[in-house]
Structures are given as structure tokens and as C-alpha cells.
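Worked Example 4.2. Consider the chain below.
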Amino acid sequence: MKGPKLVYGSSKYLWLFGLMFHYCFLIIVVRHMRLFADPVPFFVDGLEFFDGLLQIGVPTLYLTDVVFVLSITCCS
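Applying the procedure from the previous section yields the following C-alpha cells:
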């Protein structure tokens, strides 16, 4: 007799996109600290600078926003 058949294979892409999603979500939450802290911490300004390094368009296109949307669409 054969054992039970494996229905789901490896889900490496699910883990990859899940990690990308949560990392970007963390960066976005930390970037929003500037709205709640009166003297903005130095690391928030630095993080915002390097995240918006491309500065495409008038509203800055952040890299984490692109990766965030990519990870949501590829994972579902």
C-alpha cells in the first residue's frame, strides 16, 4: 500500500512574498512615525530618503510601496 498523497508541494514563493509583504509593511509603519513624533527621529528621515531614492513623480514613489503591491498581487 502507498501512503497518503502529497497535495501541496513546496511553498517557497508563498514564504518569499509573505516575507516581502511583512518587511515592507514594517518599513511603511516606521516611516509613518514622522506623523506622531514631534522631533522626527534621525532614522525615520534616513529611511524615508533611501526608500524614496528614485523619486518618480510629484508624490514620491517609494520602493517599499512597489514591492508591497507586487507581493500582494503575486501571492494571491
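The radius of gyration is 18 Å. The mean pLDDT is 83. Compare this with Example 4.1 before moving on.
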